[in-house]
Amino acid sequence: MAGSPDHKPDEAGPGVSMLNFHSFLHGGTSSLLSAVIVFPVYKTVFRQQIHNTPVRQAVAQLCREGPLKLYRGVVPPLLMRTLNGTLLFGIQDSLIHQLSSQKVLPSSALPAVAGFGAGVVEAVALTPFERIQNVLQNSQNDRHLPTLKSILVRLKTQPLAFGFYRAFLPITVRNALGSSLYFGFKGPMCNAVEGQGLSPLVSSFITGTLTSMAISLALYPVSVLVANMQAPVGGEATGWGACWRMLLRSRQRSVALLYRGGSLVILRSCVTWGITTAIYDWQQKHSG
């Protein structure tokens, strides 16, 4: 299992290199499969975050637009999720080996610390993908930015901090904390669930479901902030602090309105990370 503290640093060499390769490969394939399944749920959540609409209204809006529009913008999230899983699992596993060899941290803390580092790298690599995805899924951009090419051309004309790397700081905070918590709790929770007599595959699915559900709900306001910062193109360039204050005002400083879409986040997290964790752990155990 990735992130397990029982990796042995004295086994460095071709075996470790192959193990790291498997971590990158299996992380990418498991994330790709889960992304295809949950994209409609993600898009419904996004509409709620941007337009502040109830779930029924968001679903009705997507139904009126039809199946072709439903999967508009699917390419960036597929690429992003695949790269996300590749980097997250692969780098975390590589950092585990590096930190283990240095013996500067207790073994129980290694998965969480390595996860934090992987989350930072993930934010650097994936912020442009998330930016493009949020611009594509904002229906208010359909008229003046109808294609992926037009979006890329427009973002290239802007400074990085307001173009491709808009909302980089909150994304880094969200990803680093989320990854640290996920890998920190993944191993112990999976062992506890498997100890109840469940199969390893079911145990991994339940572990991914429970950990990601808790993390997603805790960090949901940050995701709402990111979506609202990244969805528009042009206009006044404001920092994350000003955007956060504007967001609170638009939600009438109501926690319930700020968490609108939270129920679907639970569903999305259950499906996405439950499947991802189960497939990844299964591949790792059967890679030989």
Automatic annotation (TrEMBL):
<keyword id="KW-0496">Mitochondrion</keyword>
<dbReference type="InterPro" id="IPR018108">
    <property type="entry name" value="MCP_transmembrane"/>
</dbReference>
<feature type="repeat" description="Solcar">
    <location>
        <begin position="18"/>
        <end position="98"/>
    </location>
</feature>
<dbReference type="GO" id="GO:0051724">
    <property type="term" value="F:NAD transmembrane transporter activity"/>
</dbReference>
<comment type="similarity">
    <text>Belongs to the mitochondrial carrier (TC 2.A.29) family.</text>
</comment>
<dbReference type="InterPro" id="IPR023395">
    <property type="entry name" value="MCP_dom_sf"/>
</dbReference>
<keyword id="KW-0677">Repeat</keyword>
<keyword id="KW-0999">Mitochondrion inner membrane</keyword>
<feature type="transmembrane region" description="Helical">
    <location>
        <begin position="257"/>
        <end position="280"/>
    </location>
</feature>
<feature type="transmembrane region" description="Helical">
    <location>
        <begin position="197"/>
        <end position="220"/>
    </location>
</feature>
<keyword id="KW-1133">Transmembrane helix</keyword>
<protein>
    <submittedName>
        <fullName>Uncharacterized protein</fullName>
    </submittedName>
</protein>
<dbReference type="GO" id="GO:0005743">
    <property type="term" value="C:mitochondrial inner membrane"/>
</dbReference>
<feature type="transmembrane region" description="Helical">
    <location>
        <begin position="164"/>
        <end position="185"/>
    </location>
</feature>
<keyword id="KW-0812">Transmembrane</keyword>
<feature type="repeat" description="Solcar">
    <location>
        <begin position="106"/>
        <end position="192"/>
    </location>
</feature>
<keyword id="KW-0813">Transport</keyword>
<dbReference type="Pfam" id="PF00153">
    <property type="entry name" value="Mito_carr"/>
</dbReference>
<keyword id="KW-0472">Membrane</keyword>
<dbReference type="InterPro" id="IPR052465">
    <property type="entry name" value="Mito_NAD+_Carrier"/>
</dbReference>
<feature type="transmembrane region" description="Helical">
    <location>
        <begin position="24"/>
        <end position="42"/>
    </location>
</feature>
